[in-house]
Design a protein that fits this description.
Blueprint (H helix, E strand, L loop, with lengths): L1 E7 L2 H13 L7 E4 L3 H6 L7 H4 L2 H26 L8 H24 L10 H5 L3 E7 L4 H11 L4 E6 L24
Antiparallel strand pairs: 1-3, 1-4, 2-3
Helix pairs in contact: 4-5
Length: about 190
Amino acid sequence: MKCMYYLAPTLQDTQRISEDLHDAGVNDWFLHVVSKDEAGLKRKKLHSSNYLETLDLIRNGFIGANIGFIVGVLGSGLLIYFQPFGPNVPAFVYLCIIVLTTLFGAWEGGLFGVDSENQKLKRFHDEIEAGNYLLLIYAHKGQGEAIKAMMAERHAEARHVATDKHFVNPFAVVRRKRRRPNQPATTS
């Protein structure tokens, strides 16, 4: 499953796109909208994006867990080397230290993630703040080309700005599509 990113200039355009995507077979679970206008999305019954899509919770949680694991391994290694509690400390204690520091790191990373914008959406921050609507369309294998064709045919106002082949991977990079010289920028 891949995620296609489209920028739409207005709420009405976003609603028409949503209706056409439903007609094309895209379920509400596979269509989310990122916008400053949460009230407008709710009023038009459009699915807003969730916290896992807009915040960097998962990515920072993994980074924190890795840092915690490294700290736990280093700390356990130092405790084994210097033996401040004597030579008869069971290996289970050192394993518990590693597990606890890994979990603590994941928790701390998650807290940092709740406070930061998703890295994949950061590239579209200025457009969203300017009032545009970012549509995240999750397409099953073979469905992507039909969605692109429908969007190009019926919704010239929406720009296809990126495609993420691995949206579930929090470390995958989303590259913005380059605007063609003859393609005007959308304004709100």
